[in-house]
Amino acid sequence: MNGQRQKPYRLGHRPGEQGPRPLSWNQDRVEKLATGTTNRTAATTIPTSSTPIKTNQVQAKTTATTTNKYVPNKLKLTKHILTVGTWNVRTLWAAGKLELLRNEMKRYRYDIIGNSEVRWTGKGETTNGDFIWSGENNTHTKGVGMLLSVKARKVLLGYNPINSRLITARFTATPFNITVINIYAPTSEASMDDIETFYDNLEDAMAKTPKKDILIITGDWNAKVGDNNAGWESAM
């Protein structure tokens, strides 16, 4: 079981062995939220288990006379720029909100935007794979997600919707892969159990990140700051 939990949550079509693309049970509602219109799409229930699911796997050819032509795209960090940002959107649970976010992403030319307070239920991705999210099972509260550019989607290895406060995604690049953890931290008004659970889950996600990966943590820490930084001079 421990080995299974460490596998990335793999969704979407990738070169090589193909698996189904799971869609949320309320995909019509997702499309309406994204664009303001509804497109009928056959839906497949996404498992609610916290165990990551792997549906696709790139396989290399084993014969010595051939090479694998299905090697996924890679970002060359010495040549390409990957722009990562974060935005507390307050809510995406309204028709057309996601489309507005997409337009802003194109305007500012970001590749990955970590979103908090998404307020979508369940876990999954949009039909074209540009938005991945993880939320509560029933209530439209909290929720995290990531909006991905075309470039980011092409190099996405997989993602893991941990819970309504944490989602991770891994991208292939050279010389090192990139792991992004997007968070929505509880406020000081939350119970100590909720706060400790959040930081335990965050530490666990960081510990499971491959040591050679470039680790980027984005999100809303719900922190309150002022001009008194006594003892915290090294923090901005």
UniProtKB/TrEMBL annotation:
Domain Endonuclease/exonuclease/phosphatase: start-end pairs: 85-224
Record SUPFAM superfamilies: DNase I-like (SSF56219)
GO function term, MF aspect, one: catalytic activity
Protein name as it appears in the record: Endonuclease/exonuclease/phosphatase domain-containing protein
Region entry Disordered, spans: 1-25
Source taxon at top rank: Eukaryota
Gene3D superfamilies: Endonuclease/exonuclease/phosphatase
